[in-house]
Specification:
Blueprint: H1 2-22, E1 37-41, E2 44-48, E3 84-86, H2 88-99, E4 105-109, H3 113-116, E5 125-126, H4 141-150, E6 155-157, E7 160-162, E8 168-172, H5 180-191, E9 198-201, H6 204-210
Parallel strand pairs: 3-9, 4-5, 4-8, 8-9
Antiparallel strand pairs: 1-2, 6-7
Length: 218
């Protein structure tokens, strides 16, 4: 009962914040018809909009044009067959749907905690790539099983995974040169996760920051 009341309170707060945001015109909008988007991040209402200071520039962490390759190589537009690559507007739609109690969607920041501490996309949870990568020191098979069953609604019986009720996952990391979310996506595919339930925001934090969109710190 208490969880239900919390859910209703969060939904009311989100609706109120969304209506308040719609009433405020902005010089720098997301689209001609859309100025702001309100989502839930760790139970709190957060309004996503673009930076209104038109002299604002991207943060130093994402200003570099050249990074050693390997490991920071340019990723393909399609990371794997069946996995859909999306942009900012599609990601905002997923975030809104997730925040409206759509329990079938989870937006995932695949970066390590040191990167997430610098800021992430509101509404995202952190699943570091090291948790799913079998060759990582942080990899724990039982933790992976618990994550899939408890968070992503995957079931397992007699050692066989069942993804028929699995949630839709939307993953991102630092940008087109970052391999953290591609590593998570490949790990999920190797486990049998259906490709059509996986989406990839290739632009990541670099593209998000370049558009001046709102970030939050843990």
């Amino acid at each position: 009962m208490w969880n239900r009341m919390q859910s209703l309170s969060a939904a009311f707060l989100l609706l109120w914040a969304s209506q308040a945001a719609m009433a405020e015109p902005l010089d720098v909008a997301i689209t001609p018809e859309l100025s702001q988007v309100t989502v839930l991040h760790q139970g709190e209402s957060v309004t996503i909009q673009r930076e209104q200071d038109q002299s604002n520039t991207i943060e130093d962490d994402y200003a570099l044009t050249s990074r050693a390759c390997p490991p920071f190589c340019v990723q393909p537009m399609q990371i794997a067959p069946g996995v859909t690559t999306i942009g900012e507007r599609e990601l905002l739609d997923f975030l809104q749907r997730q925040s409206k109690d759509d329990e079938d969607i989870v937006v995932i920041d695949s970066r390590t905690p040191d990167w997430v501490a610098k800021g992430t996309i509101p509404g995202a949870i952190n699943l570091p790539w090291t948790k799913l990568y079998p060759e990582s020191d942080s990899y724990r098979p039982l933790e992976v099983e618990s994550l899939l069953t408890d968070r992503f609604d995957v079931t397992i019986e007699d050692g066989i995974w069942n993804f028929s009720q699995a949630k839709t996952l939307v993953l991102f990391c630092n940008g087109p040169w970052c391999g953290q979310s591609p590593t998570n996506l490949r790990a999920l595919l190797n486990l049998g996760y259906p490709a059509h339930k996986l989406f990839w925001y290739r632009g990541g934090m670099q593209a998000w920051q370049s558009l001046g969109l709102t970030t939050v710190r843990p």
